[in-house]
Design goal:
Blueprint (H helix, E strand, L loop, with lengths): L8 H15 L3 H10 L2 H4 L2 H11 L27 E2 L2 E8 L4 E8 L8 E6 L2 H5 L11 E3 L2 E4 L5 E5 L7 H8 L3 H20 L2 E2 L8 E3 L5 E5 L4 E2 L2 H18 L7 H10 L11 H12 L11 H11 L7 H21 L3 H15 L4 H6 L7 H16 L6 H17 L3 H18 L5 H15 L6 H15 L6 H14 L6
Parallel strand pairs: 5-10
Antiparallel strand pairs: 1-2, 2-3, 3-4, 4-7, 6-7, 8-11, 9-10
Length: 498
């Protein structure tokens, strides 16, 4: 169907302008105007009709409204018993911001269930055109709207079973991640609405309810607006404020703080462009992935990486130890207190995070890796950062340099790889124990490169490095370095390249 086709960015802007004009037009002039649109815009007419039909909320039979329960307000209003259209006011339930919310029932004495009825707060709200959100499982939409014999606009919705967000969090003792996860379906509902060019316009805790199964529902009183940058931002920041309130009394952590700070920025250049990127960063938090920002240091990324890959960093015990150390002792202790095996894994984690790699994806789909030119630029930038990092832990810096050198080798830059490996060997020779596997690994990898190098004296340098590895590096942890040294030694038996 044409109405299901995804619109381009240009078509969205054109459709938005057409909608705005159509709403100011008398009904008698609408059809002739639609027929007169240029041929290039005629393809948008079906979508335009669809949006116009969504904006006008149909009056449904109030007897079909589903029964549920809300907590009555303690001090009832003097208007109890007053008739509003086909309904009679029973009890005031609260003031969610866009008006006064009432518990109401059918005035004709029928057995239809009670409903929630909204009386707009002021004349401006009463005259505001009804704009409802598209259908979505997390949205409770307006069911009925009308004007009573006194000229008052009223809106009716099914009463929603459940409690407020704050009550649900308190009752269930939710942690930070659970509180974020609680709101993710609501963000998905608003993203869906924005995709249909409708903004909610009234997101606040009073318009969110949680049922007994822990599902959050967004009440839609038809107070929405057509989607523009301003209304998209308003919805995004309203959701951020709801999240901020939901996190009260908890310690949100650096990544979550960064998300909230960015969402609530006044400068449009600094904040999220809409709800979708806000939702994406919150998903990163839930997935233990760093959110971009000054807080996202290499070791912060490394600790998150360990939480995602508990069983893959040289075994689950190592990952758990790395995670516990990073989170409880801090970066400084992590830098100074690692054992040799932990340090090797830490170097790889640092490099993977600095280069923005997904280790699992790279292993399963190497064809998706970035092109060599772009990767070389990223490697060079990471190399410069590594040279200025790891104060107080030169051995760890040497291991990172070794891993970087191997990346340069893998993208076809053996000269750069050899240069960085020489730097790593020199650093490790002056800071590590002669039996340290890190030194043995760097020497063995440099030997392998030198064996294939056409430079004068390269093979003699390789032989000296091989001898040092086999003489100084022993034990289980040195086995990989010794294997590489043996490979280099076997290559020495072959004729030298010309």
């Amino acid at each position: 169907m044409e109405s299901s086709r995804k619109l381009s960015a240009v078509e969205v802007r054109v459709l938005s302008r057409l909608l705005e004009k159509a709403q100011t037009m008398p009904a008698s002039e609408l059809e002739p105007w639609l027929d007169s649109l240029p041929a290039a815009q005629q393809v948008l007419v079906p979508r335009l009709r669809e949006r116009l039909s969504q904006i006008s909320v149909p009056v449904e039979d109030p007897t079909l409204i589903v029964p549920v329960k809300l907590t009555p307000k303690k001090n009832p209003d003097s208007r109890i018993g007053e008739r509003v259209g086909p309904f009679r006011l029973v009890q005031e339930l609260g003031e969610p911001g866009s008006g006064t919310l009432w518990l109401a029932e059918r005035a004709d004495g029928g057995k239809a269930p009670q409903v929630a009825l909204m009386l707009p707060a002021d004349e401006a709200s009463a005259e505001r055109q009804l704009v409802s959100l598209p259908e979505h499982p997390q949205v409770v939409r307006l069911k009925y709207a009308g004007v009573d014999d006194r000229g008052r606009t009223f809106r009716v919705m099914q009463k929603l079973e459940g409690v407020t967000l704050a009550e649900h969090v308190k009752r269930r003792h939710l942690n930070v991640a659970q509180r974020v996860q609680l709101l993710m379906p609501v963000l998905a509902a608003v993203v869906h609405a924005h995709g249909e060019m409708v903004a909610h316009g009234d997101i606040r805790p009073a318009n969110l309810r949680v049922d007994d199964e822990g599902r959050v529902f967004l009440l839609d009183w038809g107070m929405g607006r057509l989607l523009y940058p301003a209304t998209a931002t308003a919805d995004m920041q309203a959701l951020a404020r709801v999240l901020e309130q939901t996190l009260e009394g908890a310690s949100p952590g650096a990544d979550l703080k960064a998300v909230l700070q960015r969402a609530l920025q006044d400068d449009p250049r600094e904040r999220y462009s809409g709800v979708a990127p806000l939702k994406a960063d919150l998903q990163r938090v839930l997935d233990f992935r760093a959110v971009p920002g000054p807080h996202a240091t290499a070791f912060h990324r490394a600790s998150l990486f360990a939480r995602r890959h508990r069983v893959k960093l040289a075994g689950g015990t190592l990952a758990a130890l790395l995670l516990a150390t990073a989170l409880t002792s801090g970066v400084r202790h992590l830098q100074r207190g690692q054992k040799q095996t932990e340090r090797a894994s830490q170097a790889k984690v640092y490099l993977a995070q600095a280069l923005g790699e997904d280790v699992d994806a790279a292993a399963s789909a190497p064809a998706l890796a970035p092109d060599p030119a772009r990767l070389a630029t990223r490697l060079q930038r990471t190399l410069e950062q590594a040279r200025m990092s790891f104060d107080g832990e030169p051995v760890l810096r040497g291991q990172v340099l070794t891993e970087l050198a191997l990346r340069f080798r893998d993208i076809g830059q053996p000269e750069q790889a050899q240069s960085v490996l020489r730097e790593a060997v020199a650093l490790l020779q002056s800071t590590a124990a002669v039996s340290d596997p890190a030194l043995g690994h760097a020497r063995a990898e440099l030997a392998l490169l030198l064996v294939d190098s056409p430079g004068n004296g390269a093979r003699e340098q390789a032989r000296a490095l091989i001898d040092k590895v086999l003489a100084d590096c022993s034990g289980t942890r040195c086995e990989p370095a010794r294997q590489q040294a043996n490979r280099a030694q076997q290559k020495l038996l072959a004729p030298a390249p010309r």
